[in-house]
Amino acid sequence: MRRILHIDMDAFYASVEQRDNPELRGRPVAVGGAPDKRGVVAAASYEARVFGVRSAIPMSRAVRLCPSLVIVRPDFQKYRQISQQIFALYREVTPLVEPLSLDEAYLDVTENAWHEPLGMAVARRLKAAIRETTGLTASAGVAPNKFLAKIASGWQKPDGLTVIAPERVERFLQELPVDALWGVGPVTAQKLAAHGITRLVDVRAADLEALRGIVGTLADWLKDLAEGRDARAVQPDRPSKSSGSECTYEHDLAHLEEIRREIAEMAGECAAWLEKRTLFARTVTIKVRYADFETITRSHSAEPTREPGPLTVRALELLTKTEAGARPVRLLGVSVHNLTDSAAPPAPAVRTRRGVELPRLPFDDDAPAGE
Predict the structure, then answer these.
(1) pLDDT digits (tens, 9 = 90+) for 186-205
(2) What are phi and psi for residue 330, nearest 5 degrees?
(3) Class assignment of domain 242-364?
(4) Highest-confidence range of 103-112, 187-196, 359-368, by mean pLDDT?
(5) Which residues is 31 bridged to in the sheet?
(6) What is the per-residue pLDDT for 238?
(7) Which superfamily does CATH assign the domain made up of 4-12+77-170 to?
(8) Catalytic amino acids?
(9) Angle, to 10 degrees, between the axis of helix 208-215 and the axis of helix 186-193?
(10) What is d(CA 267, CA 314) in angstroms, rounded to the nearest whole number?
(11) DSSP string for 277-330
């Protein structure tokens, strides 16, 4: 039986800022962009979460929820340095470390450098080492597989430790709502609830063909998870296969030019991510979710590039293949795929204050380009 850990730092960015600035301790803190510039919350302290402030919501909404919120601009270089310290601790214990983000990872400690027979003991020692080295807390989940370990790590945050021993798996599964399953977001949960499937055990009882009619190919995967089965191995240092940026808006976007600006900005973020990692992308994909929650994606593949100009042009051309502008939009996203470390000669980009001039497209000759 495998012993898998999922370790997740507690409110990582916000906790780092509170550690480094005593005046922030005990106060509601959000790390992210300015509320008057469409900033988004990257992390929220637990004091801020009491007010409903969560990561990924618009900062303008966060300020309305918590008028006393302290906003701190992110320092990703600092966060990366601390993350490297933490992951070095993990790798002293096992080479089987799978990073999920700067503050989150899976570890397979079935065999470990401490020769600890219990995953719980490894988790306790690592939590103590993290606190001693960085002054920060982490929550850990211990279970026979990745699915259960990830759920367990969030069970008693912050500074939690939850162990799901093999003999406790069934009792644990009985308590879970359906949206605890991997791949079940709000829309899928809503579809399942419309068919009376609100708990994990309801997935078990559902007819497989009927379930496929609701969630398509996801049905077989959900059936396995509902039984507590997850055979995925911890994959150390898994290379990035894609990267993207997306945002759910507090108010639906109805104007095409505003939608185009959002897509262009996200494409620029993808280009910056590629540049930082000296990677190139062959495929650009956009995601559009309309106000009625219908979600579509459009993709285009060409010569690999990381130049913001070509990536933005391709993303905006994909936008013309949607009904954005004609239908209100609640979510937009841009992602890059089919990554490579070499490229054809990049096409030139036209620079503006935003970084890339928006091309004039056939249907909006009267619309101004750029900001």
Answers:
(1) 888 888 999 999 988 899 88
(2) -105, -20
(3) alpha beta
(4) 103-112
(5) 43, 72
(6) 64
(7) Reverse transcriptase/Diguanylate cyclase domain (3.30.70.270)
(8) 104
(9) 140
(10) 9
(11) TT-EEEEEEEEEEETTS-EEEEEEEEEEE--HHHHHHHHHHHHTTS-BTTB-EE
Neighbours of 154 (CB within 10 A): 14
Residue 225: its pLDDT value, please?
Answer: 87
Q: 176-226 architecture in CATH?
A: Orthogonal Bundle (1.10)
Cα separation, 90 vs 213, whole angstroms: 42
- Residue burial 190-204, b: 16+ Cβ < 10 Å; e: rest: eebeeeebebbbbbe
The C-alpha atoms of residue 264 and residue 117 are separated, in whole angstroms, by 52
Q: How far apart are CA 198 and CA 18, in angstroms?
A: 38
- Domain residue limits, the chain: 4-12+77-170, 18-76, 176-226, 242-364
- Neighbouring C-beta atoms of residue 50, cutoff 10 Å: 12
Element (H, E) at 267: helix 256-276
Q: What's the distance, CA 80 to chain centroid? A: 17
Q: Is 68 exposed, middle or buried (0-12, 13-18, 19+ CB in 10 A)?
A: exposed
- Give CA–CA dist 175/169, Å, rounded: 10
Residue among 92, 159, 133, 118 nearest 1 (CA): 118
Tell me which long-range contacts 213-218 makes (C-beta under 8 A, separation of at least 24).
215/188, 215/191, 218/183, 218/188
126 burial type by CB count under 10 A (0-12 exposed, 13-18 middle, 19+ buried)? buried
Instruction: Using the predicted structure, report yes or no on whether residue 360 has a pLDDT greater than 50.
Output: no
So what's the pLDDT on residue 49? 96
> Per the confidence metrics, is the pTM higher than 0.90?
no
Q: Two tokens at 5? A: 């850990």
- Distance between CA atoms of residues 146 and 66, nearest Å: 35
